[in-house]
Write a structure and sequence with these properties.
about 300 residues; mainly alpha; 13 helices; about 75% helix; about 0% strand
Length: about 300
């Protein structure tokens, strides 16, 4: 029982940053904007969260600072792609490279320093229940935020008027503009939300997952989050399921190494990324389903009439 509980807890911990980053990117893509800079925003959130938490002694201030930095980085992306109408793919890749380089420079003085870990929440009696106690009632606050965000985004997109407007912008920005909808403003807000979520996902890595700063500690999680959005066909609850599936793959390879299974460690370490490729290949085979759920204006530039 203890082994099962430990595995489930580590899966939840591994899945949370993927879920946060993917749910933010889902909102951005639902508005028609493809931001490939998730990895860069995540790593900037990680170094900012660690630096502020280490300096102030407060992991909460670190998390807030990471959210702000993620949103500011996304604003840079928004200015370039929405205002200056640069290519979204190229700009997103440049944002990732900028984030990786800048985070390495900022975080150089923090390498090897002890981090400030965000403590878990313990609910008396409930957190002592076997198996589900710590898994459901003894997690860190950001875990609960990630679940709440998934529910809130689901309601927003499919139950609110504002969500319907955003989906209309993502499906046909020309028609939305003709109806008087402020396409650029909505996309800016969606991109900022995505950046804030990516920043929080990065802070989770340096404040909860491994409370320390290591250069490039996101290790490709931003790219997996991007794949998760496609895997989930732009549905929030499917993103939740996909994040935990990929979290299980990531943790599975660690436990396989610990048990001494005779498989090269390099192959086991590559399993999460191999699973990402396999999933994308399988999804691409059903082109009709993919096209049916893909926002029609995704990645397309929009220049309002002047």
């Amino acid at each position: 029982m203890g082994m099962v509980e430990a595995i489930l807890l580590t899966i939840a911990t591994a899945a949370t940053p993927l879920l946060l980053a993917a749910i933010g990117e889902l909102v951005s893509e639902r508005s028609g904007v493809l931001n490939l800079g998730v990895e860069g925003m995540m790593v900037m959130g990680a170094v900012t969260g660690f630096a502020v938490a280490y300096t102030t002694g407060s992991p909460w201030l670190g998390a807030v600072a990471a959210i702000v930095v993620g949103a500011l980085f996304s604003l840079l992306f928004g200015f370039l792609t929405l205002t200056l109408v640069t290519n979204q793919v190229a700009t997103g890749l440049a944002l990732t490279l900028l984030g990786l380089g800048l985070s390495g420079m900022i975080g150089e003085r923090f390498i090897g320093l002890p981090g400030v870990k965000m403590e878990t929440i313990s609910i008396p009696f409930l957190s002592d229940l076997p198996l589900v106690g710590r898994l459901v009632f003894g997690q860190d606050p950001i875990f609960y935020i990630s679940i709440a965000l998934t529910a809130a985004v689901t309601w927003f997109l499919f139950r609110s008027r504002a969500g319907l407007t955003m989906r209309a912008v993502g499906d046909s920005h020309d028609s939305a503009h003709a109806l008087g909808i402020k396409v650029i403003a909505i996309r800016y807000l969606a991109v900022m939300f995505g950046g804030a979520c990516a920043g929080l996902a990065g802070a989770y890595l340096s404040l909860v997952y491994t409370p320390q700063w290591v250069e490039n500690m996101t290790a490709g999680r931003g790219w997996i989050a991007l794949a998760l959005v496609v895997f989930a066909s732009w549905r929030p609850w499917r993103v939740l399921a996909g994040a935990y599936l990929f979290g299980a793959v990531s943790i599975g390879q660690l436990h396989a190494q610990a048990l001494g299974i005779g498989i090269p460690s390099q192959f086991l370490s590559a399993l999460p990324y191999l699973a990402t490729i396999v999933v994308l290949v399988l999804i691409s085979r059903n082109r009709r389903l993919t096209m049916m759920n893909t926002p029609a204006s995704l990645g397309r530039p929009f220049v309002p009439d002047r």
